[in-house]
Amino acid sequence: MARKQPPKALVFDVFGTCVDWHGSIIRDGRLLNQERGWDIDWEGLVNAWRAAYRPSMDRVRSREVPWTSLDELHLASLKELLPRFIGKTPKRAIKAEDLEYISKAWHRLKGWPDTVRGLKQLKSKFIIGTLSNGNVGLLTRMAKHAGLPWDVIFSSDWVHHYKPDPEMYLSPVNMLSLKPEEVMLVAAHKHDLDGAAKCGLKTAFIIRPLEYGKPHFDAGKYDSKFEKRFDYNAKSFIELADQLGC
Amino acid sequence: MARKQPPKALVFDVFGTCVDWHGSIIRDGRLLNQERGWDIDWEGLVNAWRAAYRPSMDRVRSREVPWTSLDELHLASLKELLPRFIGKTPKRAIKAEDLEYISKAWHRLKGWPDTVRGLKQLKSKFIIGTLSNGNVGLLTRMAKHAGLPWDVIFSSDWVHHYKPDPEMYLSPVNMLSLKPEEVMLVAAHKHDLDGAAKCGLKTAFIIRPLEYGKPHFDAGKYDSKFEKRFDYNAKSFIELADQLGC
Questions:
Q1: How many Å is the maximal CA-CA distance in chain A?
Q2: Given this structure, which CATH class describes domain B21-107?
Q3: Chain A contacts of B151, Cβ < 8 Å?
């Protein structure tokens, strides 16, 4: 039962696992519509924007393009996608600085209801950190905005790799001088956990049924079932903290 | 007066500026003497250990030896120095795991009386982070031990450079997508602040008269005078927070 030795550090996927990107960006955007008299379809935009996330990173992972931070990828995707979603908004009403501001909506995401309380509980016993494809500036500002009490920020930016590259999963192992099995990834996405497990990390799966706004059982957009292959399975960070004896 | 535009992020030298390495290691060691019946001269050892710090890093900076983390440098210096300070302790009483434990005394340092309260005040208005030659594991564990509420850990480990190499001072600038003058180094050591100023960062000098245990006015071991060339001069983090309107 060596597998069930508790880990020493917990590292977290952030987008979807810790914060509600879908709901936060729609809310942020609709407030902007109201303030500026714009007619942007934020729900359509955020879904298309998130769908561009993986392909844009894969171009960096394959070295088709040189290292590009997630802030830069977000801005580039936004510029490409926004025209399809502006509705009756006059194109010239949206300035370059507005695009900058909108692209930083990813810095202004809010946690799920259990996120801050659960992280504080887990922090009392473990080192807690991000392990995110977000860049350091994004993750740092998001933490201040959403009150996420990280001990340390592990980011794609430091290693110039995106998950699921093994360099990312091994970064907290090396930097904290721990064995792989002493580090556990907490994530709402099974492919991410499988990537971590391949590198020898422990895994904790958290179900986040509202990641895409409403439960999409049929579309299978979110991972909805516990799996025995993960070391822990929980419905919230608080449930995970209970399982870990915090 | 562009120089007096407030910064957006404050980064801190850690050893001596935020934490009392001299007093903490002596205390940690004397408790160990008592527990184990050892006779180690901790005051002599800690002074020699700290004196080995700069030359050991300089060998890495000059690329005479490959990248070596501060944890590893601390352990190597300890092995070299300890025999001179063991007094009547039998050499075989000190095992390899004891050396490991002693070398991690640098993870167990405590803040100055104003450190935690001052950092919390500063954190309410600014991004606060380390900018330290300590490695990520050391700085993360020290923060948990001493309650230092960092938003982000900037470390030699991430850039494989030690201060005063410019790569270190520019790391928070690049990673937070800020201009150099939007980042301020807070430090008790003038040579460190001068290194930051050369890279365009703002500077805040904090006097720490007890860094070497007692004020060494004659020995000039600690920097004891305010200087006009620094953007801010203060006697504590709380005084600095007041000056910055926190």
A1: 63
A2: mainly alpha
A3: 140, 143-144, 150
